[in-house]
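for the recovery benchmark. tokens below, seq after
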């Protein structure tokens, strides 16, 4: 059966210099092959060659999706979504697309480039380990097969076969049709393997196969690092590990150091080796996690299926993990690997906490201080420092930093006026690199200038709290159905499924520019109405934010379920944007629910997580501020101007 690669487009806006929630600098594609049809390049799959041919013959054919028992809004193809993103009033000419080869649909991501470009992740991009493990690197642009075909470390690289079943965010009580993909992974010892997170996203089954073997072994996903696009696997079979030698991690390479990428990309079933050099080392946008971490740019070929495969140096040490490539008509031979520093951070995080907790952030919006008059006005005597423009309410920095403060040092390291810090002997790197070296809960010492006076403060670093998440923890989205009204939290995957034109400009503006005021806050929307006589007149409502129930401001989807369950009034009065009301008689709504669920083939009126007791993290009597976009909309310049950055 002909199949093709499936890809996901999502729209996100980020700063050219910061890890903003909706800001990415260019388009990247992941390197796993899929059994689905798309016009984008995808990772290798069992039927990938056939799929690629089919996609080339019929590039406009839509991806197959599971049959849904409910009528819903028409979906847009990847090409349509791309066109929508280009004409959407809120998007800029700098928008580019990030394509996830292991996902079923495409997502659009914004970048600060002036011209559209494409990053394709055909291999896994990982940052190097801080530990003593070594990394493999290669010197020349084309590897001589004789030098590597008998190398023992090649046997540590395995092929990954994954079956994915992604949630249906528009119909959150069900899943989409499953699909398969292939990628690469490698052994690190102690019965564990490393690969890319996007290679095993929404996995229902993961299998691995060693080089020269015809047996596939079941693997278990121990941890996923969405931000760093890393995943840790384990294989229990002792037979799989017989004679295996794990790879050793090496130091961060230098410019022009030779590097060799090994994996199982398209073009064949056996292991593949490509060779190049290190072209650049800097903070890079990670397409899968929409984050900014250290990355290594190389000119070795990275293709679909290389994701999760190691990159070696001349000593046979692993210096990184292939994960994405940059595609544009104006450039060529730009691939990216995750350095061992990022890989080691991921592994140490898992060892410390028994799970992945994420990379921390400071939680402030910064402005560069390149202008001498600006520095003089702020009382900064030297050519250094960055200005605090905003502080995220959910960050610990909100307790110690104020707008107008100038950060001049971080843990004793001076911060330049361009937002950079010293890196190795003769280089400089983005300030947020220092923050990415910390772990959740670590304390950082900040040297600041406030009203012309220098002082030192301490702030606890924790992962950023997203009002609209990129990924759904646990895989399945929450939902609540009240008399046919389907409520669910707004998320980036939902925006991607529904398309921007169906979500609406106002809701997209909130999703892109709002900051969470407290942990657990969500934008709850009425995604659709399942037509029934009890909800006559509301059938055409869709993708509308619900603000209040019977006068009480809604904090999140669990809070809404609690308010519905505890309501004793005669009517349920839902208040939406622009004072639009939807009123249901409570008893009639309760009696109609079971019939509606049966008519539409829905197993339950709410997701399992909403059946748990509601705990108000703010306190029952804590007032919720009446705000539209936090304490005011964030301007486009705060996310897109090169002099500004989130850290």
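predicted aa per position
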């Amino acid at each position: 059966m002909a199949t093709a690669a499936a890809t996901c487009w999502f729209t996100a806006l980020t700063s050219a210099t910061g890890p903003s929630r909706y800001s990415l600098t260019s388009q990247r594609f992941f390197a796993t092959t899929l059994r689905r049809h798309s016009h984008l390049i995808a990772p290798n799959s069992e039927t990938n060659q056939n799929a690629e041919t089919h996609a080339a013959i019929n590039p406009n054919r839509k991806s197959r999706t599971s049959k849904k028992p409910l009528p819903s809004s028409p979906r847009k193809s990847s090409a349509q979504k791309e066109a929508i993103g280009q004409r959407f009033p809120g998007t800029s000419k700098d928008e580019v697309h990030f394509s996830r080869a292991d996902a079923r649909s495409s997502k659009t991501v914004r970048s600060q480039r002036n011209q559209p470009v494409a990053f394709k992740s055909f291999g896994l991009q990982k940052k190097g380990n801080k530990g003593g493990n070594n990394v493999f690197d290669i010197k020349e642009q084309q590897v001589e097969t004789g030098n590597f075909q008998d190398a023992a470390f090649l046997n540590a690289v395995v092929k990954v076969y994954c079956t994915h079943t992604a949630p249906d965010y528009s119909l959150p009580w069900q899943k989409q049709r499953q699909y398969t993909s292939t990628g690469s992974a490698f052994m690190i010892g102690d019965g564990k393997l490393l690969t890319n997170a996007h290679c095993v996203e929404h996995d229902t089954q993961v299998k691995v196969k060693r080089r020269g073997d015809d047996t596939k072994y079941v693997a278990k996903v121990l941890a996923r690092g969405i931000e760093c696009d890393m995943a840790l696997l384990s294989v229990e079979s002792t037979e799989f590990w017989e004679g295996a030698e794990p790879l050793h991690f090496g130091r961060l390479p230098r410019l022009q150091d030779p590097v060799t990428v090994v994996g199982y990309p398209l073009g064949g079933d056996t292991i593949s080796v490509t060779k190049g050099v290190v072209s650049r080392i800097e903070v890079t946008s990670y397409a899968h996690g929409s984050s900014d971490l250290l990355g290594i740019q190389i000119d070795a070929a990275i293709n679909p299926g290389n994701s999760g495969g190691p990159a070696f140096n001349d000593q046979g040490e692993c210096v990184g993990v292939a994960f994405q490539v940059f595609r544009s008509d104006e450039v060529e031979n730009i691939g990216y690997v995750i350095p061992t520093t990022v890989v080691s951070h991921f592994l140490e995080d898992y060892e410390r906490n028994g799970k992945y907790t994420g990379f921390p952030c400071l939680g402030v919006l910064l402005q560069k201080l390149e202008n001498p008059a600006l520095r003089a006005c702020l009382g900064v005597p030297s050519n250094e420092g960055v200005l605090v423009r905003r502080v995220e309410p959910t960050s610990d920095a909100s307790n110690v930093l104020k707008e107008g403060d100038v950060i001049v040092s971080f843990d004793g390291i001076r911060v330049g006026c361009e937002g950079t810090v010293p890196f190795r002997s003769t280089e400089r790197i983005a300030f947020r690199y220092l923050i990415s070296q910390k772990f959740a809960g670590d304390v950082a010492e900040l040297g600041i200038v406030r009203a012309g006076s220098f002082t030192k403060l301490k702030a606890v670093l924790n992962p950023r709290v997203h009002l609209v998440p990129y990924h759904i923890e646990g895989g399945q989205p929450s939902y609540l159905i009240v008399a046919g009204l389907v409520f669910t939290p707004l998320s980036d995957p939902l925006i991607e499924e529904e398309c921007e034109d169906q979500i609406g400009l106002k809701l997209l503006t909130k999703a892109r520019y709002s900051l969470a005021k407290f942990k657990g806050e969500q934008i709850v929307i009425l995604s659709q109405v399942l037509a029934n006589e009890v909800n006559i007149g509301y059938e055409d409502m869709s993708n509308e934010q619900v603000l209040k129930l019977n006068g009480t401001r809604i904090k999140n989807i669990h809070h809404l379920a609690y308010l519905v369950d505890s309501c004793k009034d005669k009517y349920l009065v839902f208040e939406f944007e622009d004072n639009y009301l939807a009123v249901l008689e409570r008893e009639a709504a309760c009696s109609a629910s079971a019939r509606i669920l049966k008519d539409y083939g829905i197993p339950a009126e709410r997701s399992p997580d909403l059946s748990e007791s509601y705990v108000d993290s703010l306190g029952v009597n804590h007032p919720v501020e009446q705000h539209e976009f936090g304490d005011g909309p964030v301007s486009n310049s705060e996310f897109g101007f090169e002099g500004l950055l989130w850290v």
